[in-house]
Amino acid sequence: MTEPASSGTPPRAPEDPPASPAPASADDTVIDTTTGQDHGHDDCPKCGSTEVTRKGDTMSLICGFCRYEWVGSRLEDLHGLGDGIGDLVGRTFMSGASDITSAETLITLKCQGCGSEVVVDTGRSLEARCHWCRSILSINDKIPNGAVPDGILPFGISKADAIARIGQFAGKRKFFALKRFRAEFKPDNVLGVYLPYMTVDGNVTARFRGEGEIQTRRYTVQHGKTSTTYYDADVYDVAREFDLHIDDLIIESSASRSNIDNRANTNNIINSLLPYDVKNMVAFDSNYLGDSTAEKRDLNIDDITRKAHLQFLTMSRESIRNDLIHYDRGVRWTHEDMDVHGSRWATVFLPVWLYRYAERSDNGQVMVHYIAVNGRNGNVMGSVPINKARLWGVTALVTMLTAAVAWPLGAAMMAGA
Amino acid sequence: METLILASGSDSGDIAIFGLILFAVPFVVGWFTYRALYKRYRNQDQRYRYEHTTSAVRSALQRWDTFDRKNNRQRSSEIGGRNDDDSHVRADHATVREAQAPRVAQEERQAQAAREAQPARDAQAARDAQAPREAERPPQAAPPRADGA
């Protein structure tokens, strides 16, 4: 490849210093996902009972009284979320991704069954059972504290299955595990939790500029007793410009989960469970939550826009790699430039089976280790606290055994030389 | 591409170097053992591989590849500062702009009613100069009372 694939001058990226993404400044379009339902009873559409649960691990809801079954509406079908990414202009978001305007998590509902008042802690759950008449009260529409998402992906993996997977994962990592962890490990303590995320589509144009090299010759030259290999290369000015339509990038919308720092936490474990099949998410219905707890979203779109844009940029770079293979000595990009023409945001609850273990170090610091299972496809990942004394001991043993073989051999060679 | 080997050789010096390398091998093996076991238990390198798993459709690709110069007799098999093989490494100059949606035309503003002129403020009267304060006297001991108390 020596001929330019396109004539003309490559696009000039602005000569800015290493810059961070620009703050959000676009006008907003809102897709209304509010239900208009009052909070309180979320009745069976057939008989009016509130005893509605999920049917096993399916997407169906079933009334515990009359056995009527129905399936929640897929958000993709309802609002055409998979379509028209190339037409996105400015910011479009669903009602559940609106800015959080209230820090209040406790909501008092009046039971329609008996009139008593029931408090729902929306920081943990969106349902509560009336302590007098036993009917279930739910948060049935968006609330300003960000607790109610647009969509939800119900668990597809049962608790028993998750327990088995976590047990198997930890079982393979027993030898170097902390003694206390081994003694206290009880996978039955696994909890089902819905964690808050945002999905974002992006309509972007990316431009990259830099230099690429193609090797023309490779040769070895003898310098006295040593030899050196040299490479000749042709240098090209390389530029690429293209549109990229990004579909369903998933980003944490909880500040505590979003903070991934391997020295202080193991949030990367939960992050590594992504992606999920968010195409299958259904419009949020608190009946899907069941006994699982739900973590409240506490980040707005503005808070995660920078992260989303950086990930768009990384994806753009990744998507152009296969177009550069003829530059066998590689490419050095010097300018990256991206226009985000439009983005579309939705909030979603994603299911995680979570086993948690707090390791208290000698200096009093606590590190929380997670073993987590993707509630949809069963992928498991975890962090197991390590017995460092045992690890160092085995490392020393391996080092000594290797030395026992390598050192006499090395000594003999030195003596021979 | 042309490959040419002009000369090569090895002697007792190379054997001595290899012998030295053998001395270092146990420590390297120990280091890799520790790293591998630690990684297996803590999985600190695990993360969401969004750049590989998220659907992204590329279109309207334009290319510019212009020969610039020859760069001969390089010791490295790769271009200096190569970053195309790690999409997480940002280029020296990185810019992201978010476009604005076309704004909805605003209603024509109505002219505001002219403000009524406010009465001119009266100038404040000049303050009278105050007498200079006297320096505070140190508290004096109370005079002895006649009853001797």
TrEMBL record, chain A:
Q: Say if the entry is tagged with keyword Membrane.
A: yes
Q: Which domain of life is it from?
A: Bacteria
Region feature (Disordered): 1-43
UniProt entry keywords in alphabetical sequence? Membrane, Transmembrane, Transmembrane helix
- Provide ranges: composition bias, Low complexity: 22-37
Q: Which positions, given as ranges, span the membrane? A: 391-415
Protein's recorded name: TFIIB-type zinc ribbon-containing protein
Species annotation: Demequina litorisediminis
Lineage summary: Bacteria, Bacillati, Actinomycetota, Actinomycetes, Micrococcales
From TrEMBL, chain B:
Reading the lineage from the top rank, the first entry is Bacteria
Q: Which residues cross the membrane?
A: 15-34
Regions of compositional bias (Low complexity) in chain numbering? 111-129
The reply on keyword Membrane is yes
Region Disordered, annotated ranges: 63-149
What keywords sit in the KW lines?
Answer: Membrane, Transmembrane, Transmembrane helix
Residue ranges with Basic and acidic residues bias? 81-96
Report the protein name in the record: Uncharacterized protein
Species source reads Demequina litorisediminis
The major lineage groups are: Bacteria, Bacillati, Actinomycetota, Actinomycetes, Micrococcales
